[in-house]
Amino acid sequence: xxxxxxxxxxxxxxxxxxxxxxxxxxxxxxxxxxxxxxxxxxxxxxxxxxxxxxxxxxxxxxxxxxxxxxxxxxxxxxxxxxxxxxxxxxxxxxxxxxxxxxxxxxxxxxxxxxxxxxxxxxxxxxxxxxxxxxxxxxxxxxxxxxxxxxxxxxxxxxxxxxxxxxxxxxxxxxxxxxxxxxxxxxxxxxxxxxxxxxxxxxxxxxxxxxxxxxxxxxxxxxxxxxxxxxxxxxxxxxxxxxxxxxxxxxxxxxxxxxxxxxxxxxxxxxxxxxxxxxxxxxxxxxxxxxxxxxxxxxxxxxxxxxxxxxxxxxxxxxxxxxxxxxxxxxxxxxxxxxxxxxxxxxxxxxxxxxxxxxxxxxxxxxxxxxxxxxxxxxxxxxxxxxxxxxxxxxxxxxxxxxxxxxxxxxxxxxxxxxxxxxxxxxxxxxxxxxxxxxxxxxxxxxx
Length: 447
Ligand SMILES: [Zn+2]
Known about the structure:
Strand content: 15-25%
Radius of gyration: 21 Å
Number of helices: 14
Helix content: 25-40%
Shape: globular
Distance between the termini: 47 Å
Number of strands: 17
Largest sheet: 9 strands, mixed
Bound molecules: zinc ion
């Protein structure tokens, strides 16, 4: 693979062990990996990316999303509802999705993420109407070129059994486990340079049985893949757990094998001190979704307490039906602001928010050995931000400025050393054509 030299960055935010920020540094990329970082690098024959005026960061990592929801943004009946009411509004619309809608929606969501600095995203797909498969999203992500952790979600308790989703959107539990095995065998790549990984992800404790939660954990350990679900999202969620299971969500998770370094839970807004301690000592990860938590009025996740206790925390935008944007650098800002609302202005620095958005996310997804920081030997997932943009003009500290003011759109983005965004434009897909395809698909869903 060709060599690329990112030359003369104003600042390289390495996120290495010493959290060094290098002025005037260059980065040499060979074979999809970082070969060298430092001042005055030269590489005859290399493609050169001029980083003058740019802050260069590790690619941002999105640890929680439902990309299929990108075609259901700002749906009137769901705009002002709490979580459970919101879901009941959207289920009938999602039941009309076809595989093509899954593909378009995935690309729309990932394109938006890429433009906001994201190089690696997980996705939680838990409903499969009209022949849709996890495969549809994996192929869509490959076309765009982002690193993709697809999770095989599932729901098995429909309305007739006291669950929330309509019966038409739930699956038989044996069929779910069979398909989990199929997609892991077909797509999961355990290698350090993996572009595609698969995890197992029953939607939430209130949409599958205790048995499926337990069996998914056993299967994941057998296959060597990770586990993901929603946990302790809001007060309704805690009340449901206490009423149905007789315990808090943390205890339920622990009893069924859902703690450990190979597990990450979305939201965790309502974790109490004992659950935070449980997550810290079991190395269980958290996908913090600040805008979604605000949008659904769920509360402020105790990220400060989690970080102080040693819990692995990454950032997630969550599905576009509950955000409704897919601006990952914007989530870093929102994370910082929310922790300040809860704990004071010195509770979360811009640099710590950026760390959670990069290294934190890589750690939550089990990729910290090869991603999340800019160091020789690591994979070349890199975001370049042009601080000469209007949004950052007037700033005194370019690194803090990125989170405190902007810009929110990258100048260049590289994944595995390949350019996905160049001069602010997607190059693997055409942005306007993609938006038009999404607009047409949405019109069909509205009809
Ligand atoms: Zn979610």
